[in-house]
């Protein structure tokens, strides 16, 4: 870690609205807390399958609560998260594997764009309710500031074995730390990883960091 900063890894998938909330809070706090924030795009579908987890909205009462909770959280954290009951069905029908590979490819070669690109994907999916395909990837990347030439290379790399393996490795790492869903923040303190699941445990993360 640089300058005695604590490394905090954030594992996330843009299909997860709670990941967006956790992402925005940690992106803000990386300038306030003495942390080295490392963004780790992972694949939520792979984590759910490996751990036998189910989407929380599969339980109707929990789904009702989540709708209210996300609206409150979005307002509190000033994240433009829009959600309706239909979104739960939309999530279940959507695979973000292609999007997370594209984000992974960007992180590997253009790491300075990882934060704005991820944010643009969430904005499309959770503010504008747009489904993902390769045309959307290009639009999102342009919006995040990437040039057409770089975007073309990223699109070519998205389905390469190197990128596929990197996303799989990152997803497996999250599972190894104990993740069963996303977001998962891992703080490395005195050589020991501490896992915090969800976007509502960030004050505990702050506490363990001494912040």
From TrEMBL:
Pfam families, alphabetized: DSBA
Entry's Gene Ontology BP terms: glutathione metabolic process
CDD domains: DsbA_GSTK
Chain ranges of the DSBA-like thioredoxin domain: 7-208
GO molecular function, one term: glutathione transferase activity
Active site per database record: 16
Any one of the GO CC terms: peroxisome
Reaction equations catalysed: RX + glutathione = an S-substituted glutathione + a halide anion + H(+)
Keywords: Transferase
Keyword Cell membrane: no
EC number assigned by the record: 2.5.1.18
PANTHER family attached to this UniProt entry: GLUTATHIONE S-TRANSFERASE KAPPA, GLUTATHIONE S-TRANSFERASE KAPPA 1
Family of the protein in this entry: Belongs to the GST superfamily. Kappa family.
Protein name per its UniProtKB record: Glutathione S-transferase kappa 1
Native source species: Aegotheles bennettii
């Amino acid at each position: 870690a640089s300058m005695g900063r604590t490394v905090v890894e954030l594992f996330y998938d843009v299909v997860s609205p709670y990941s967006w909330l956790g992402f925005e809070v940690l992106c803000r706090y990386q300038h306030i807390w003495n942390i080295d924030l490392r963004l780790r795009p992972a694949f939520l579908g792979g984590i759910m399958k490996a751990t036998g987890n189910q989407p929380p909205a599969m339980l109707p009462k929990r789904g009702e609560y989540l709708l209210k909770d996300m609206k409150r959280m979005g307002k509190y954290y000033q994240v433009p998260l829009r959600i309706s009951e239909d979104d739960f069905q939309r999530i279940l029908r959507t695979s973000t594997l292609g999007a997370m590979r594209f984000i992974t490819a960007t992180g590997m070669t253009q790491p300075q764009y990882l934060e704005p690109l991820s944010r643009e994907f969430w904005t499309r999916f959770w503010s504008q309710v747009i489904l993902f395909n390769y045309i959307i990837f290009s639009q999102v990347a342009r919006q995040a500031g990437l040039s057409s030439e770089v975007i073309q290379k990223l699109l070519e790399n998205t389905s390469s074995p190197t990128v596929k393996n990197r996303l799989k490795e990152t997803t497996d790492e999250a599972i190894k730390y104990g993740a069963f869903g996303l977001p998962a923040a891992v703080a490395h303190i005195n050589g020991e990883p501490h896992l915090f699941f969800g976007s509502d445990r960030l004050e505990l993360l702050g506490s363990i960091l001494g912040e």
